[in-house]
Design goal:
The complex is a heterodimer of chains A (about 280) and B (about 375). Chain A has about 280 residues and is mainly alpha-helical. Helices cover about 70% and strands about 0% of the residues of chain A. In chain A, strands 1-2 form a two-stranded antiparallel sheet. The chains are: A mainly alpha (about 280), B alpha/beta (about 375). Chain A: It is a multi-pass membrane protein.
């Protein structure tokens, strides 16, 4: 039995790790969407985290916990810097500006010697484990639930439903927006570092527009009523294509069909239930 | 009601998927795994490779391996995605317990899947991975495709000897691993041969307008333009160059990305005079190759390409190695592969100590004429 379990875990390890990492990315998207902002920069923050952590591991030989800290700090710093000018933007304009961020990162990584250019960086040692990834995911989820249940969560929900009204009621809009962007960048950077150290290879094209849209779709499919929705969306969208491999050419058709059906019948996401409040 | 239908819809494919996964091969067969791009935009490479494998498999199974056992290939689709390539490798090693892996199709996928196989001590043989550093992944990673580092010098040396090329302009796509690694080889070879580089221009793989770079290059009067790019931008460059009125004596010299019949299909006569080196050519008239081309045409009603040819040779090499190993044991197969000697449609073949192809004598230099490749004479 143990051997069978072993071979199951070995065979699906990449998938199991991807589910956890994508769950973190979905939570990172959730922190921005929860205050009614649409950012497509999550993939870029993830890329920054992945590259920073990889370079620190390969070239500087930092211990892994310090690498993870840096993978959170650097994207957070980037979010602080771009936060000022972009915070005045809302909706599609913020989305456009954050797409720009992703493109800048991709072009920089392609042109720079430091990041290995288009060849990317290979030979990254595997430092992650099942416990680490899911421990971090559980902590992030717990944090998100606690925030959602608090006064802060009430303010966030007010902002999402009507920003102007929330501002009039005394919610500090700029601080909330910047805070959400920074936290989401930290989560995405952490996910990037875990992803890089679970694979052995990263390249500039892993963190482009496609990845940004994928992360957005995790949150939208799951629903943003509570932090559990985006994580559920990430689980489904990560596992589904793998379950459907036997369908070959029809895989993407069926995959898309299931998503269309879900969105048609559940426009607010799969988990519409909202979280109870304290305080 | 609606919810039940939905659930049924969602479960249906899962049920079929489960049924197909668990179908076991017969115990007396030898099953090896292959990871190729079988769906999606790059599937033409993976399907050509699969055709090459299957054609050779028919021949191998007329006698069988290990004293009459049947050789079976279990295919997994990577769809050109490195994560799916890793999933496929883990599934083949962990569940199907294959003693050897073929593929994956792209170098990027090999950089992700190769370490998994290497760590589990399962030999993995790439048939189309030409980037630098593939076999440096580890001692269990082999490749049968000649790396660009072996093909490009032959092309440039031929160009220098035949056309007296002294100064060139270089162009490459800087956002694509394949094109970048080809450029690195071009650069090193040009230096070694003492050819002067007038300028180096870059572009993006998805670009469609190259007139800015080409106008600058034209003003510098190079003897030739050296380009490292995939076939789509390569065709665009040739078309733009023609419309800018490049002198016909200026030769375009390409890396392996140019080595596709699509170049002639897209660029037509604008591609005339373009030179490229190839480990294999459909018009090579040795008996092994004529037999292969005829068998391929009979089975698939289509012409084979370089990817099919490399795959065809690879399966014969692998089958021979399994035979020599005497058992479907990864360690023994690895030792047998290392010592493999085979003469196939690409010419004589053996591995170097670093598990790259040792012999570049099969390389032919091709030239475009009237939208078709022919051997440069």
């Amino acid at each position: 039995m143990s051997a069978a379990l072993d071979s199951f875990f070995f065979s699906y390890q990449a998938l199991i790790f991807a589910v956890g990492v994508n769950g973190l990315l979905a939570l990172s998207m959730y922190t921005v969407l929860a205050i009614g902002q649409l950012s497509l920069g999550q993939a870029a923050f993830m890329g920054i985290g992945a590259y920073v952590s990889t370079l620190l591991t390969l070239d500087a030989g930092w211990p892994f916990w310090a690498v993870l800290m840096a993978a959170m700090a650097v994207p957070a710093l980037a979010a602080l810097v771009i936060g000022g000018p972009t915070l005045k933007l809302t909706g599609v304009y913020l989305a456009l500006a954050t797409i720009g961020l992703g493109e800048i990162l991709r072009i920089f990584c392609n042109a720079s010697e430091l990041t290995g250019g288009a060849l990317g960086l290979s030979g990254i040692p595997n430092k992650t484990s099942f416990g680490l990834i899911y421990g971090i995911l559980a902590l992030a989820l717990l944090g998100a639930v606690l925030v959602a249940r608090s006064k802060l969560g009430r303010a966030m929900e007010a902002m999402r439903e009507d920003e102007v009204a929330a501002g009039v009621m005394g919610v500090n809009l700029p601080a909330m927006k910047l805070g959400a962007l920074v936290v989401s960048a930290m989560l995405a950077g952490l996910a990037g570092a875990l992803n890089a150290h679970a694979n052995s290879f990263i390249g500039p094209n892993d963190y482009g527009f496609d990845q940004a849209v994928t992360i957005l779709s995790f949150a939208l499919l799951g629903g943003i009523g509570s932090p559990f929705g985006p994580v559920l969306g990430a689980v489904i969208l990560t596992v589904l294509p793998e379950l459907l491999t036997a369908l070959h050419d029809f895989k993407l058709v069926v995959n898309g069909f299931i998503i269309v059906v879900a969105v048609l019948f559940m426009p607010r996401g799969l988990l519409v239930w909202r979280i109870g409040r304290i305080g | 009601m609606r919810k039940t239908t939905l659930a049924a819809l969602a479960l249906l494919p899962l049920a079929t998927a489960g049924a197909i996964w668990t179908a076991p091969a017969k115990a007396e067969d030898v099953t090896i795994g292959a990871i190729e791009i079988l769906t999606g935009p790059n599937s033409r490479y993976g399907v050509a490779i699969k055709n090459g494998f299957d054609l050779a498999l028919d021949e191998v199974n007329k006698t069988g391996v290990l004293g009459g056992k049947k050789l079976v290939i279990q295919y997994e689709d990577s769809a050109g995605n490195k994560d799916q390539a890793v999933n496929a490798a883990r599934k083949l090693i962990g569940i199907s317990k294959v003693p050897l892996l073929l593929g994956p199709t792209l170098s990027n996928e090999m950089f992700a899947a190769g370490p998994v196989a290497n760590e589990q001590k399962i030999p993995i043989v790439g048939t189309s991975t030409t980037a630098n550093g593939i076999t440096a992944i580890g001692p269990y990673v082999f490749r049968t495709s000649l790396p660009e580092a072996d093909v490009i010098p032959v092309t440039l040396k031929t160009a220098q000897a035949k056309f007296g090329i002294k100064k060139v302009a270089v162009m490459y796509a800087n956002d694509d691993a394949f094109s970048k690694s080809g450029y690195d080889v071009f650069k090193a070879t040009l230096e070694k041969l003492g050819i002067q580089t007038l300028t180096t221009e870059t572009f993006g793989t998805k670009d469609s307008d190259f007139s800015a770079q080409l106008t600058k290059i034209k003003s510098l009067n190079p003897d030739a333009v050296v380009v490292s790019a995939l076939v789509e931008p390569a065709s665009g460059i040739l078309l733009d160059a023609r419309s800018l009125g490049f002198d016909e004596k200026v030769r375009f010299i390409g890396g392996n990305g140019f080595n596709s019949p699509k170049l002639g299909d897209i660029a037509g006569e604008a591609a005339d005079g373009t030179m490229v080196g190839s480990p294999w050519f459909i018009g090579k008239d040795d008996p092994a190759n004529t037999k292969f081309v005829a068998a391929y045409r009979a089975k698939y009603k289509d012409d084979p390409d370089q990817f099919a040819a490399q795959a065809y040779d690879t399966l014969h090499i692998v089958a021979n190695a399994i035979d020599k190993a005497g058992a479907a044991d990864p360690e023994k197969i690895k030792t047998a592969l290392q010592a493999a000697k085979y003469t196939g449609v690409m010419g004589p073949f053996s591995f170097t100590e670093n598990r790259d192809p040792a012999d570049a004598s099969g390389v032919v230099v091709l030239e475009m004429k009237g939208g078709k490749f022919q051997i440069l004479k």
